[in-house]
Amino acid sequence: MRKLFLPLCILLLMSGCKKSELEAVNSSPVVSADKAVAVAEYEMVAPPSTISEKLLPDENKPAQPPLAPKKIDTIAKKIVKNGNMRIQVGDIKKAQTQVGDILKKNNAYIQTEQFQNTDIDDNLDLVIRVPHKNFDALINSFSEGVGSVLSKNISSDDVTEEYTDVSIKLANKKIYLEKYRDMLRSASTTKDMIEIQEIIRELEDEMDVAEARLRFIDDRVNYSTLNLSLHKEKVRSSATSKIGFGSRLADSVTEGWNSFMSFLLGIISFWPFLLLIPILVYLWRKWRAGRRK
């Protein structure tokens, strides 16, 4: 029994040693992986290498978790509506009064106004801004109560993706801005302060541009734009009042005669030079006669 007991104890001791070695080997990669994750997270929030090492966190201190990006609220769809309309009317002034009443009813306003008067027609071009919810009602009112619609073009652009992208970038820049401001308070050298202040200035400029872009998109979404043109043809005073071949032929004959008269009057306007022609002819003949003698 003693001979069997001694080998059995040796086998048990050897198996226990192997098991402890295996556990040590298996546990070591897990620890190193956790350290790698911690280092990676630390590097995500560490300041740029251009800043002095005095501002870097102490390696002996535990790594701080990275700053979580600011949560962006769910953004509603951003739809920009634009339109172009051309309407033929019988009286520009009357149509302009009707347009004014329709604008008041729909809380719209005129951004720009341009009037053009020619021999053939009158044109009043308006750029109208109207609340997004009243855009369709405004279009229907112009189509039904002002005149005959010659052309109409309505477009809708979805800018939700652009708005969301700009909002997320702006939120991240605000986080980094606060981070660099904290670094500026702990800066100990003039060089570090100048470098950090330059980064802060660039971030603030980029944030101003992003905020301006968001305001512009909001304005285009909240107020739609309509380009309205009121057109009135003038009555022709000639016998051939209808615009056709006869009218065009008469106009061509008239234009030809006017062109001929303009040419003739242009020649007459050179009468001082015409007086020189007889003098030049006389001198040339006299010179030729003298040469023969």
UniProtKB/TrEMBL annotation:
<keyword id="KW-0472">Membrane</keyword>
<keyword id="KW-0175">Coiled coil</keyword>
<feature type="signal peptide">
    <location>
        <begin position="1"/>
        <end position="19"/>
    </location>
</feature>
<keyword id="KW-1133">Transmembrane helix</keyword>
<dbReference type="InterPro" id="IPR025645">
    <property type="entry name" value="DUF4349"/>
</dbReference>
<keyword id="KW-0812">Transmembrane</keyword>
<protein>
    <submittedName>
        <fullName>DUF4349 domain-containing protein</fullName>
    </submittedName>
</protein>
<feature type="transmembrane region" description="Helical">
    <location>
        <begin position="260"/>
        <end position="284"/>
    </location>
</feature>
<dbReference type="Pfam" id="PF14257">
    <property type="entry name" value="DUF4349"/>
</dbReference>
<feature type="domain" description="DUF4349">
    <location>
        <begin position="78"/>
        <end position="285"/>
    </location>
</feature>
<keyword id="KW-0732">Signal</keyword>
<feature type="coiled-coil region">
    <location>
        <begin position="193"/>
        <end position="220"/>
    </location>
</feature>
